[in-house]
Structure formats: structure tokens, C-alpha cells
Amino acid sequence: MSNRPWTDDELKQLAAIVAAGGTAFRASAKLNRRMATCRDQARAMGTPFEPLYIRRRKMLAKCAAAERELIRQRLAY
User: Fold this and answer.
1) Which of 32-36, 46-50, 56-60, 73-77 has the lowest mean pLDDT?
2) pLDDT digits (tens, 9 = 90+) for 2-24
3) Cβ contacts of residue 41 below 8 Å, gap of 6+?
4) Largest separation between any pair of C-alpha atoms in the chain
5) At CA 43, angle to CA 37 and CA 63, rounded to 5?
6) What is the pTM (predicted TM-score) of this model?
7) Using an 8 Å Cβ cutoff, are 30 and 13 in contact?
8) If we measure between CA atoms, which residue out of 55, 25, 53, 50 comes closest to residue 38?
9) What is the signed CA dihedral for 48, 40, 22, 20, rounded to 10 degrees?
10) What is the pLDDT of residues 59-70, one digit of tens each?
11) What ranges do the domains of the chain cover?
12) I want to staple 26 with a disulfide (CB 3.0 to 4.6 A). Which of 14, 22, 63, 71 is the partner?
């Protein structure tokens, strides 16, 4: 397995993916690198990926808030 060095362009792309809330899976697909490598490099840059359990928790909270809003709108009519 080769350990090719990260280019400046790849590092910028990785930072952009992390900043946009992307996952290690998306970064690995875009950069054609292993997920673990992308995760490790992001952590080394000081911008680690958000843990999946936190992403799931936020998504569930967002869905619950949307459902509450729908119920509130239906009761207003």
C-alpha cells in the first residue's frame, strides 16, 4: 500500500468537506483515499469530522422539531 503525500489542494478540499459538515466517507470518495486516512488527516489538521452519533442526534432533533411545527400548524387551523 502506498503512502502518497497529501497535496495542498487535497488538504484544502478536505478542510472544505469537514467545514461543510461532510463525512469521512464523502471525503474518501472525493479524494480517492481510505476513510481512516481522511479521518486521521483531518484530526491532524485540527479539524476532525463530527462523530456520527452526534450527527444522528442532531438529525433526530431536527426531525422532531419539524414534526412539532407541523402539529402546531395543524392545530392553528
Assistant:
1) 73-77
2) 689 999 999 999 999 999 999 99
3) 6, 11, 14
4) 63
5) 95
6) 0.74
7) yes
8) 25
9) 50
10) 999 999 999 999
11) 8-76
12) 22
